[in-house]
Amino acid sequence: MKSIVFDTGPIISLTMNNLLWILDALKDMSKSNFYITESVKKELVDIPLNMTKRYKFEALQVLHYIENGTLEVIGNDKIKDTSSKLLDLANRCYSAFGHDMKLVHEAEMSAIALYLEKEADAFVVDERTTRLLVENPRKLRHILRHNLHTKINENRAALRDFQRATKDVKIIRSAELA
Fold it and tell me: Any idea what DSSP says for residue 167?
């Protein structure tokens, strides 16, 4: 059976565009399992329902798809450990002004860790920084240098290790999913 891992952004995009319903049809059509991590669920559901007043309606919509089994939440110590290692590597790949640049967040790296654990068929992510870090880190460096108007230093060892860990990750965007 196929499996697809989702980051937070694509599910938010589908929800905000009133397209979350396509997940059921897509899951049936593709005969795939749809996974999210506990960190992704926290961003999508737990924080809006328990800590903020914004996005509660959207969180309830996503919660429905978790409760009906369309999205399966996966979490374990191995994912947390791999996620922590990926997060550390990713956020040490580039530096500016003598400081490492925090480029990615826990949820994105936990989703990649889940992708690797499940040997998934696709990782759905819209975040440009994450996509470029996996697919084209040189282009990411160029964009950072252009946008920040400063020299961006590359930690080749961290970048090499991150690239080695994520070399087989197949990324698709929510627009491609739809």
Answer: T
Question: CA–CA separation, 87 vs 90, rounded Å?
Answer: 5
Distance (Å, whole) CA 112 – CA 106: 10
Question: pLDDT tens digits, residue range 1-10?
Answer: 699 999 999 9
Q: Which amino acid does the sequence have at 148? A: L
What region, left, alpha or beta, does residue 100 occupy, with left being phi > 0 and alpha being psi -120 to 50 degrees?
beta
Structure tokens at 47: 């924080």
In what side-by-side order are the strands of the sheet with 94-96? Answer: 99-100, 94-96, 153-154
* Helix orientation angle between 106-118 and 77-90, rounded to the nearest 10 degrees: 120
CA–CA gap between residue 36 and residue 115 (Å, rounded): 9
- The pLDDT tens digits for 100-127 are 999 999 999 999 999 999 999 999 999 9
Query: For the whole prediction, is pTM greater than 0.90?
Result: yes
DSSP 3-state of 122: strand
CA distance 31 to 25: 10
Strand 171-172 to 122-124 pairing: parallel
